[in-house]
Amino acid sequence: MSEVLNARTARDLEFAKVLELVAKEASSPLGAEAVRSLWPSADRTGVEGEFQRLAEMEEAVRAGFTPGPIRDLRALLAEAHEHGILGALDFLPIVETLEAAADIRQALSHPRHPRLAALAHRLSDQTALLARIWRVIDERGEIRPDATPKLRSLLEERRRLTEEIQETLRRFVHQHREQVQDAVITQRGGRFVVPLKTGARGLGVVIHEASGSGQTLFAEPAEAVPLNNRLREIEDELDRERHRILAELTGLLLGQSEAIEEDLAILAYLDGLFARARFSQRWNAVIPQFTAEPLLELWDARHPLLGARAVPISLSFGQEKPVVVITGPNTGGKTVTLKTIGLFCALAQAGIPIPAGSRTVLPFLRRIRADIGEEQSIEQSLSTFSSHMRNIIDILGEADEGTLVLLDELGAGTDPQEGAALALAILERLLEIGCLAAVATHLTPVKLFAIAHPRILSCSMEFDLETLAPTFRVLPGVPGRSCALIVAERLGLPKELVERAKAKLSAGEIQAEEIIAELARERAAARRVRENLEIEREALRKLRAEYEKRVQALREKKAEFLTRELKKLEEEIAQARKELGELIAQARQAQTAEARREILRQVEELAQSLPVEVPVPVSRPARPWAVGDTVRVGPAGPLGIVRALSEEEAVVEVRGKRVTVPLSSLVPAEGPAEGPPPKPLAPIPPTVSLELSVRGLTVEEALRQVDLWLDRLLRAGFSQGRIIHGRGTGALRRGIHEHLKTLPFVKEFHLAPPEEGGDGVTIVVLG
Questions:
Q1: What pLDDT, in 10s, does the model give residues 94-121?
Q2: Closest CA to 108 of 258, 260, 277, 257
């Protein structure tokens, strides 16, 4: 089976150049190489799978994913296999890539990316190898001094021996100051020496080298010779130990080389996906919809090689009209349109998103074949026409109903009449085959044939006669004019010559051009009306969007204001409740009626300062109470019996205990003092639960609920309740307990017994 894209078509469509644009988005040479190897596939299931993975990668990129520094390790692995040892510095790119692979594995292991996660999980776990490399190699690419005990011991011995040699040479320099050229210690041939004057004698030294001027001899004192010898031995041992360490580390690497090579292939593929996702973002590209029908719909297609200069192309053909004939003047954009059609089909079947609108629909093709551009074979002595004809013959031989055929300037390069006849025959053959085809031409007979044929869509490239420049817009349903005579006249050709040229045209040709011109004028007028409508529609859309934006802003502002005011109100109520609790506690401890009256006055002032009504003791005119009266202490207080009276106070027995209260706080009540309290006069909730569940709330939300619930309990006259907060991390329980400690009306609180919820429940006692 032949390939979807052959070499000539790929060249005509400039497929490799576009791949290079995508490859630039890769984060590594491996990813760029993976992009360059992409090729259109006839496997629809495989291509759709590619786009599913690409969609996940686009989401990951939007969330901030980027591959780490991935290196191409294949050359290093090959060197390791060949020589059995790598340099210490060679392990840095290995570590970099293995760590990047680990990061990628973690970053892509997300439920939202099941297909990428499946790929990432195939990356091998090289934790042990990484740990071993870092144990031996440091961040500068050097062997660590403590890589092995032996290396550490040898380095320590070298340091000690070096100090001993230098101390020996310093003593020598001090003893023979007159014969020493410079009081410095240097090295020659890996041995420590001192510079002596040329005439030095009788010192018992070994001369290693003389200076260029001959005035200085570099000498090794006899007492330093055995020490230098031992130092050289240690250096040799250090080299052997380092070599052994690197060979061992390389062996560990080779043990994982097969897995690492598989990882490199996965990393290259993932980076290639990343490059395609970045290309999609940069070009506002889309994943196209594929159809099994012979239908091709391009919407706002922008050729990537044109960059910002690209004029969006919209064109639809197929099904009842499988062939489109595009006409118009030279340099009008016919070739670019053909290339865009073929390129986008090829990119899509290579798994690359296309810079077009989301409404774009492409057929899934078995072949894409094109004859575009100039081609002349010197070796085969073929003319341009002959070369094109040979290519077209090959295309017609391969084409079937699953093929897209693109032919540029069909019938050109030879006698116009013969060329037109040949073009018509080729068009008829394409219709017989049943393939999709896009053909560009400027031959009048082909234009007329396309207009008249029910299965051909006639299109033209718009040309601005005022500026003599193409607009590169495709106008479906209208053939294009060649405009040669008009352009010549506008450019300054004498009118006499233009008229003479028109006279040479046949009557049929003149009439055809006039019909085409009229159609073009009507089409241009319709387009202007449509553009004006689109402008008005866009203006209305913007006005509506602005209106909705303002309404939403007002809603948000209102919600924000209400939230802020509610929070402020809650804070004021909480503060008032705290102050009220403190005043109640002070009232209990007050010794005199005057002190209690002062506290009552403060309570009333506090109530008046709040923005909401809060039930507080209300001063009432004194009434002649009698000993034995049944009363209620406060509107919602407990029942009691008056046992003693004075001018301003009463002693009331409540549940067996006697309390002294102001006369103004007494409320008439009927019924026995020890019986159940009647319905309170102050407004309280119709029902009060003795249990509050705050599980799942934040601490701040829970405390708000606890305060409201405690307020209801107090107003209802209950003295105990249960808060269910659950166990969890304990943060909610601790927050509630800390808050309860600050409330003066909370007598005590403690965790429930195990059988009643244990540390998931707090029992609160009010007093």
A1: 999 999 999 999 999 888 899 999 999 9
A2: 277
Query: DSSP labels for 173-190?
Result: HHHTGGGBSSS--EEETT
Q: Judging by DSSP bridges, how do beta strands 456-464 and 436-440 pair with one another? A: unpaired
Give me the sheet containing 746-751, strands edge to edge.
691-693, 720-724, 761-766, 746-751
Residue 428 gets which letter from DSSP?
H
CATH number corresponding to 691-766? 3.30.1370.110
Fold of domain 149-248: MutS, DNA mismatch repair protein; Chain A, domain 3 (1.10.1420)
CATH number, domain 289-504, options 2.40.50.140, 3.40.1440.10, 3.40.630.30, 3.40.50.300 = 3.40.50.300
Long-range contact list for 148-155, CB < 8 A, 24+ apart? Answer: 148/241, 148/245, 150/241, 151/238, 151/241, 151/242, 151/245, 154/234, 154/237, 154/238, 154/241, 155/238
Residues ≥6 apart with Cβ < 8 Å to 11: none
pLDDT confidence tier of residue 635, bands split at 50, 70 and 90: low
Which has the higher per-residue pLDDT, 754 or 749? Answer: 749
For the chain, the C-alpha Rg in angstroms (whole number) is: 47
Q: Could you give the strand order of the β-sheet that contains 313-318, starting from the edge strand earlier in sequence?
A: 289-291, 361-363, 295-301, 313-318
User: How far, in whole angstroms, is CA 668 from its chain's centroid?
Assistant: 72
In one-letter notation, the amino acid at residue 256 is: Q
Per DSSP, what are the bridge partners of residue 371?
407
C-alpha triplet 124, 128, 133: angle, nearest 5°: 110
For the chain, helix (H) and strand (E) counts, in that order, are 21, 23
Tokens for 28? 């590594």
pLDDT tens, residue by residue, 389-424:
889 999 999 999 999 999 998 877 777 788 889 999
The answer to whether the beta carbons of residues 261 and 74 sit under 8 Å apart is yes
| Token reading at 314 | 């919209």
Phi, psi of 421 (to 5 degrees): -60, -40
614 vs 603: CA distance, rounded Å: 10
Distance CA 199, CA 218 (A): 12
Identify the DSSP state of 611.
S
Quick: pLDDT tens for 155-180.
Answer: 999 999 999 999 998 888 888 887 88
Has residue 58 got a pLDDT over 80? yes
Task: Tell whether the torsion through CA atoms of 329, 331, 333 and 339 is positive or negative.
Answer: positive
